[in-house]
Amino acid sequence: MTRVMASGVFDLLHTGHLSYLDQARALGDELVVVVACDSTVRRKKHEPITPQEMRARLVGSLKQVDRAIVGGEGDIYDTVREIKPDVIVLGFDQSFDEDALREGLKAHGMGDIKVCRATECADDLNATRRIVAKIRRMGEQDEDHRDS
């Protein structure tokens, strides 16, 4: 059995996320998804819109996903060691350097884990920021209508 690990924020799920998880699932028999904890999201991206437990529950309910867990704040290699994947799939827009990750895995005694990157789809994973921007614009328009 081949266990695949994918990770991400998954704040406001959209079809780009589904494409990423479809690609990850196609590489194995079991897909475990690590959902970034709120503090990591704040530090690396933005204030999360949806709390970590809710994001993990939503991701875990997707048909492609066998299990979703909330990631820790510490070392990524602790999480990898816990999940024991055969394959790690990175999102096409994730900042991980594939070669650096391979070297880190090797240094932590997990050099046999395959690392690959998902391909971009038409509904890319930057869509969350665009969705948020559209909601803000709509809110501003609603305010303008109320003020007139």
Structural features, described:
The chain has a five-stranded parallel beta sheet. The mean pLDDT is 89. Strand 4, helix 5 and strand 5 form a beta-alpha-beta unit. Helix content is 45%, strand content 16%. It has one domain: HUPs (Rossmann fold, 3-Layer(aba) Sandwich). The radius of gyration is 17 Å and the shape is elongated. It is of the alpha/beta class and 148 residues long.
Oligomer state of the chains in this structure: single chain
The fraction of residues in strands falls at 15-25%
Q: Helix proportion of residues, in percent?
A: 40-55%
Average residue pLDDT? 89
How is the main sheet built? 5 strands, parallel
At the first level of CATH, what is the class?
A: Alpha Beta
Count up the helices: 6
Structural class of the secondary elements?
alpha/beta
The H-level CATH homologous superfamily, spelled out, is HUPs
Query: Which geometry do the CA atoms define?
Result: elongated
- Domain count: the total is 1
SS elements, strand count:
5
Gyration radius, in Å = 17 Å
List low-confidence stretches. none
CATH topology: Rossmann fold
Distance between the termini: 62 Å
- Arrangement of strands in the largest sheet: 3-2-1-4-5
Q: What structural keywords apply?
A:
148 residues; alpha/beta; Rossmann fold; 5-stranded parallel β-sheet; 45% helix; elongated
Provide a compact summary of the structure:
The protein has helices spanning 15-25, 38-44, 52-60, 76-83, 98-107, 127-147, and strands at 3-8, 30-35, 67-70, 87-90, 114-117. It has one domain: Rossmann fold.
